[in-house]
Amino acid sequence: MTEARIYEDLKEDHDRHRKLLKQIAATSDDSDEREALFEDLRQELQAHAAAEEESLYATMLGMPDLRDEARHSVSEHKEIDDLLGELV
């Protein structure tokens, strides 16, 4: 049951991220609205990555067949975090 909830939560996060990206795309230039939406997205992505790494990837790292995939995913989170830092 807990595993199903984790996947539901991750999907809900992804849906929120897509919505925020659409809202950002509908803005232009350096508007206050765009800045606020981007900050919301940045915070959402960082919280999502931390939760995903703790709840999903930590388990995957303990499974030899999934270890490389988990490491790759954690690496992608780091890359996204670095890129978000450059955009701020």
Account of the 3D structure:
The protein is mostly helical. Helices cover 85% and strands 0% of the residues. The protein has 3 helices and no strands. It has helices at 2-25, 32-61, 67-87. The longest helix is centred in the middle third of the chain and has 30 residues, at 32-61. The model has no long low-confidence stretch (mean pLDDT 91).
Radius of gyration: 15 Å
Q: State the helicity in percent bands.
A: over 70%
Described by strand count, sense and barrel closure, the largest sheet is:
none
Strand segment count: 0
| Contiguous uncertain segments of 5+ residues | none
Query: DSSP strand (E) fraction?
Result: under 5%
Number of helices: 3
Give the helices and strands as they follow along the chain: HHH
**Cα separation of the termini:** 38 Å
What general outline do the C-alpha atoms trace? elongated
SS-based class: mainly alpha
Mean pLDDT: 91
